[in-house]
Amino acid sequence: MHKEQFLKSLENGLKKLSQQEQEDIIQDFQEHFSIGLAEGKTEEQIADSLGSPKQIAKELLANYHIEKVKATKSTGDIFRAVWAVIGLGFFNFVIVFGPFVALLAMVFAGWVIGVAFIASPLMVLVNVVIYPATFEWFDFFFSSLLCGIGLFIAIGMFFATKALTKQFVRYLKYNVSLVKGGLKHE
């Protein structure tokens, strides 16, 4: 593969990055080619030593999305980072997507339980308004107890969600570095 083919393929893979970041990356790889040519290597040898431009673009996109998650921590950025890491290879689909779905299910279930417990006095009130003859003090006190437990669960889920998000981003970074290391040794 010649220099222009390599750079064009890399540029096509980096379309989701900003124009400035694309230019910086392309300039870095042009420097690789310049240094290699100065050392007497051919463009094909340099391109072969750098690896697949498509794989390089996938790795750079995955790193970009992971860094963006660290800065913003929005749900959309987390999903984009997960898909970018999964895009590094089929093996990552199993290794990243499985834990992500399990983690997402646990966090969602915890929040649902917390909110349901907090809303239980409201449900008792609705029941009393619709069926006034069914009011019992036990329902009122038990729903108040559930509301208190729900507040503790919600507070715990807030901190758990923050901690799990941080740990999952670290896991994604580790996975990307693992893929990069595995590709270098092939």
TrEMBL record:
Keywords from UniProt, A to Z, are: Membrane, Transmembrane, Transmembrane helix
Database matches in Pfam families: HAAS
Transmembrane region(s): 81-104, 111-134, 140-160
State the superkingdom: Bacteria
UniProt keyword Transmembrane helix, yes or no: yes
Name recorded for this polypeptide: DUF1700 domain-containing protein
Q: Which organism is it from?
A: Lentibacillus salicampi
